[in-house]
Amino acid sequence: MIAQPHQLNAVGDPADQRSVTAPDQRVIPEATVARLATYLRALIGLGEHGVATVSSESLATEAGVNSAKLRKDLSYLGSYGVRGVGYEVSVLTEQLHKTLGLHQNRAVALIGLGHLGQALAGYAGFASRGFRISALIDSHPALVGTRLRGLTVQHVDCLDEVVQRENIAIAVVAVPAAAAQDVCDKLVAAGVTSILNFAPTVLNVPPHVDVRKVDLAAELQILSFHDHRKAGRADCAPATAESIAADSAPAAPVPTDSISKVAVAR
What we know:
The chain is 44% helix and 16% strand. The chain is an alpha/beta fold. The chain has two domains: 103 residues, Winged helix-like DNA-binding domain superfamily/Winged helix DNA-binding domain (Arc Repressor Mutant, subunit A); 129 residues, NAD(P)-binding Rossmann-like Domain (Rossmann fold, 3-Layer(aba) Sandwich). The protein is globular. The chain starts with 18 loop residues before the first strand and ends with a helix.
């Protein structure tokens, strides 16, 4: 099976309409799962500011969706809120943690320690969201065996051993495109079934493996398209009353003495 790239925008409509099964066996559309992560981020922010309850309208605004879609998404959790009160921030946060499987810290392996990989290794946001970088892996002799962020960089040939020893649940692939499929195959062989792919290529994986693709260049190209369209609309902006009046004004008469001078010059 070819893992299709998913959109980066968590609140947009994905290219496919697959569903996933929650831990309690409820079937949740994949597009909803993506938005649940966005709702959780908004709820955590509200909780940090001491907000105890939040209306669906306010939470929808924080998450960048409309309130009707938010209420439908949250109905998959069995949580409809209280009319006139809204949602309890702490309760809904806990529900989302359980649904997304974040009630336990998940061990993550990061493969590829170039500029992007090292930046990801240093990102503090993973720990606060229920993930810990438990293994750093590369193949470059200058990196293998060195210490980074408190971890020793392991060689990619030791991938199977590292996955088993650290109980890796998710792998982040940040290697060049040419090496990505080989790394992916090694991860699948080691038993990893969830992969976040930063390499600019599509990975071939078995049906039981989930791949999320993050293509930063593609996202910039999409923004470039929208920026280009906005620039085009500006060039084709409708004429204003002032510009119409200016274009319609008669040309200023040319002085007769100027015409005579031109004739003499000829």
